[in-house]
Specification:
- The chain is α/β, with parallel strands linked by helices and about 350 residues long.
- Helices cover about 35% and strands about 20% of the residues.
- It folds into 2 domains: about 60 residues, DNA polymerase, domain 1 (Orthogonal Bundle), CATH 1.10.150; about 280 residues, TIM Barrel (Alpha-Beta Barrel), CATH 3.20.20.70.
- Helix 5 packs parallel to helix 6, helix 7 packs parallel to helix 9 and helix 10 packs parallel to helix 11.
- The longest helix is centred in the middle third of the chain and has 17 residues.
- The protein is elongated and about 70 Å long.
- The two termini are about 20 Å apart.
- The structure holds S-adenosyl-L-homocysteine and iron/sulfur cluster.
- Iron/sulfur cluster binds next to helix 4.
Length: about 350
């Protein structure tokens, strides 16, 4: 295993300092940054604008790759593709690209596995394996952009909804998005990012204080504490009232709409009563509800409700004037749907 530090873990300022220490002219950092984030070079040899000695020094000092693609799978007639990577430390990560018409949404992971243990989620079943560094989060994006670019397509959105709980790896996740947002580099607009959290209240508050333009999605799934704690164990620590209060403060502070995600499970949280309660809970909220029919995962017996039942649930929310959409399942045949990302050790990398 290489001990070199990953170049994508460094901010532009940090790289500037290093190049200064190496007595390189000031413009080198701009060239390096453009090479990494505009030309998407991931090998020092590609930096032909640099003298050979500098290319050599970069290769001696930095790694340009730390997550390695192991397997690529396709579904939905090629419109959904999932890549399994292995980190240098041997941890699995999955990343999914979904195409719908002209739109290309990339779903990235913030952790390998997840420690939150939501009962219906396959990533939760894996347990927590590792936090990803900002550079490893960035590498997932650059890998897919190299692919889409070669097919003359561009990414429309990046959602941090893959493996892991991003607000449990807050600093690295935000550093990654900041670096991807940098106008002199990758220049991906803040409003095209979405972070989805299970509801880590102190981090929602911290995120609100930063007043970022990044979209926020909250995985709610139930409108009363008894049911939510059963589905999402972290609810015992941050119950619904505290969560909703933090969300209301977020909207007040940022003036930005929040999305609430609700995985619909037959005979569990798909009742008229839950819909009514959700309607009252979100009354007057600048928000949007995303209904996600449950995707099947190993070890969880729940099922998605019928289409009729889903539409009835949606109708109740609309009667409460809450904008609401139903997420179309994608990538199910290759376990690339929401909550299906999991790599179990016995099936790993064989
Ligand atoms: N940890 C974060 C982000 C990753 S999960 C979070 O929980 O928000 C991304 C979304 O997939 C969440 O809304 C989650 O509730 C949902 N999800 C998890 N398991 C699912 C399943 N089996 N079917 C459908 N959606 C699921
Ligand atoms: Fe973790 Fe999100 Fe899955 Fe819950 S739903 S176990 S928070 S990845």
């Amino acid at each position: 295993m290489s001990n070199l530090s990953l170049i994508y873990d460094y901010s532009k300022e940090e790289l500037r300092e290093i190049l200064q220490e190496w007595d390189e002219p000031a413009y080198r950092v701009e060239q390096l940054w453009r090479g990494l984030y505009q030309s998407l070079w991931n090998n020092p040899d590609q930096f032909t604008v640099f003298p050979k000695s500098l290319r050599y020094r970069l290769s001696e000092q930095f790694a340009f790759e730390s997550i390695f693609p192991q397997r690529e799978t396709f579904a939905d007639r090629g419109q959904t593709r999932k890549v399994l990577f292995q980190t240098q430390q041997g941890n699995p990560i999955e990343t999914v690209l979904m195409q719908a018409g002209e739109r290309h949404t990339l779903c990235i992971s913030s952790q390998s596995g997840c420690g939150m243990g939501c009962v219906f989620c396959a990533t939760g079943k894996m347990g927590f394996l590792a936090n990803l560094t900002s550079g490893q989060i960035i590498e997932q994006v650059l890998y897919f952009v190299r692919l889409t670019r070669s097919e003359n397509q561009t990414l429309s959105n990046i959602v941090v909804m893959g493996m892991g709980e991003p607000f449990h790896n807050f600093e690295q996740t935000l550093r990654a998005l900041d670096r991807l947002n940098d106008p002199s580099g990758f220049c991906f607009g803040e409003r095209r990012f979405t972070i989805s959290t299970v509801g880590i209240v102190p981090m929602i508050r911290e995120f609100a204080r930063l007043r970022r333009q990044i979209n926020l999605a909250i995985s709610l799934h139930a409108a009363d504490n008894e049911l939510r704690s059963q589905l999402v164990p972290i609810n015992r620590k941050y119950p619904i009232e505290t969560l909703i209060e933090a969300c209301r403060d977020y909207v007040k502070l940022t003036n930005r709409r929040i999305s609430f995600e609700w995985v619909l499970i037959e005979n569990l949280n798909d009742s008229f009563e839950q819909a009514q309660r959700l309607g009252s809970l979100l009354k007057g909220f600048l928000c949007h509800v995303n209904l996600i029919p449950l995707n099947p995962t190993p070890g969880y017996a729940g099922k998605a409700p019928s289409k009729k039942r889903i539409l009835e649930f949606k109708k109740v929310l609309e009667q409460h004037h809450i904008p609401c959409t139903v997420r179309i399942p994608r990538g199910i045949s290759i376990h690339a749907g929401c909550g299906q990302l999991a790599v179990f050790h016995q099936e790993q990398f064989h």
